[in-house]
């Protein structure tokens, strides 16, 4: 029996993870659940999976959940509100694997705490490695803990690396869907609306990550994640556009052989892989039918039309704190785009200015989470200022 904790259980990854648990009831047990504010869905999950420890982001949400549980004659042994709750779920002594799927920066402390308490970490939160990759990987090495990627591309690379000597690996190749504007001419990109950008061709995701996929920043953030997960320098990580999202990513070996992982586009597959690793279990999913996939296409990403990818490489090659600046600037720029305060092409323009300033500041040592937060706060202030200036011109 693997004992699981899920941080972010009411989000899309969290719900898929609970579907995996339900399908693998003899192998997986939910010990802890943590969620933000969706009390109705959370109470239903707690009733169904009976975790020992639960946490919600606010006291009000927790009260609402507990009232719903009482009405149904259910309760958890321990219930918390706020950031301590996330920590309590992440470090509960009975937990073997912690799935970090809560969005944003709240997960930083909880993920580090899970690693420090010797838990296997299944990672679905991008910020954790983009903002504090060096710190997380170093802590995991020290504690002998595995960080297993749930993101489909990194999960694919993790699978492709199996049984290969790291010295034989030449390059990691991340596939990108290319987003909804892959074929759109440069001069029309400025007129793109939030509604158009929110139409994603192959994956169904939240607004922030969907915009990131339209700008290719999502892939840029994944390049940074790959750097830490697989200890690969930036010039050994490549991106290829593959609109069908059938090949989830590849590894190139010393002799030129490419090893790829293919599968249906369903997050339950990488989640189950992280829960079962190093074992493989049957999955209640249709196998990929190659003949019905049709043509598989691959093309180089157009960094002229989608400069965000290059900006991510630049951040990775710059001072240690620069990816934090990239991440914060992107978050604010995307928010401003969704609020119609910035045009689509304003997103990379704002990020570039933030990186210029961040480079000058040298965005120095980021050896602690406090230092990471300090750079993050600086980058948010700076970017907000940049956006205000852009708006007023
Ligand atoms: Mg991905």
Task: Summarize the structure in words.
- With 393 residues, this protein is an alpha/beta fold.
- It has 3 domains: 2-149, Rossmann fold (3-Layer(aba) Sandwich), CATH 3.40.50.720; 151-266 and 287-314, no CATH class; 318-393, Rna Polymerase Sigma Factor, Chain: A.
- 48% of the residues lie in helices and 15% in strands.
- The protein has 16 helices and 11 strands.
- It has helices at 12-23, 39-49, 59-71, 83-90, 107-116, 126-143, 152-160, 194-197, 207-215, 217-229, 268-276, 290-293, 308-317, 322-338, 346-361, 369-392, and strands at residues 2-7, 28-35, 53-56, 78-81, 97-100, 120-123, 147-149, 169-176, 237-241, 247-253, 258-262.
- Helix 4 (83-90) packs parallel to helix 5, helix 6 (126-143) packs parallel to helix 10 and helix 14 crosses helix 16 (369-392).
- The longest helix is centred in the last third of the chain and has 24 residues, at 369-392.
- Magnesium ion binds next to helix 7.
């Amino acid at each position: 029996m693997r004992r699981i904790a899920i941080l972010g259980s009411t989000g899309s990854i969290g719900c898929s993870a609970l579907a995996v648990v339900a399908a693998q009831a003899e192998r997986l047990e939910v010990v802890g659940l943590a969620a933000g504010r969706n009390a109705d869905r959370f109470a239903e999950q707690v009733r169904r999976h009976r975790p020992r420890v639960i946490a919600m982001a606010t006291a009000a949400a927790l009260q609402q959940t507990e009232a719903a549980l009482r009405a149904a004659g259910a309760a958890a042994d321990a219930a918390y509100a706020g950031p301590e709750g996330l920590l309590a779920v992440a470090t509960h002594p009975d937990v073997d694997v912690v799935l970090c799927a809560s969005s944003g920066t709240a997960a930083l402390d909880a993920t580090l705490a899970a690693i420090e308490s010797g838990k296997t970490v299944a990672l679905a939160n991008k910020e954790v490695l983009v903002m504090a990759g060096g710190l997380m990987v170093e802590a995991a090495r020290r504690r002998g803990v595995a960080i297993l990627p749930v993101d489909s591309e990194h999960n694919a690379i993790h699978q492709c690396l199996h049984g290969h000597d790291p010295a034989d690996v030449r390059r990691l190749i991340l596939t990108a869907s290319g987003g909804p504007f892959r074929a759109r001419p440069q001069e029309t990109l400025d007129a793109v609306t939030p509604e158009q950008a929110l139409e994603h061709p192959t994956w169904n995701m939240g607004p922030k990550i969907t915009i990131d996929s339209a700008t290719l920043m999502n892939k840029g953030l994944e390049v940074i994640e790959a750097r830490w997960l697989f200890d690969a320098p930036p010039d050994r990580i490549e991106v290829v556009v593959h609109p069908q999202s059938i090949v989830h990513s590849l590894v190139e070996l010393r002799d030129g052989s490419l090893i790829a992982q293919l599968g249906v586009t369903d997050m339950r597959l990488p989640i189950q892989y992280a829960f079962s690793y190093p074992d493989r279990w049957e999955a209640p999913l249709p196998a990929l039918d190659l003949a019905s996939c049709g043509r598989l296409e691959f093309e180089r990403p157009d960094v002229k039309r989608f400069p965000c990818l290059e900006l991510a490489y630049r951040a990775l090659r710059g001072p240690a704190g620069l990816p934090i600046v990239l991440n914060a600037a992107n978050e604010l720029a995307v928010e401003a785009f969704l609020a119609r305060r910035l045009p689509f092409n304003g997103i990379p323009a704002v990020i570039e200015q933030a990186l210029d300033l961040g480079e000058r500041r040298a965005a120095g040592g980021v050896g602690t989470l406090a230092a990471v937060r300090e750079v993050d706060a600086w980058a948010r202030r700076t970017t907000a200022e940049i956006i205000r200036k852009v708006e007023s011109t």
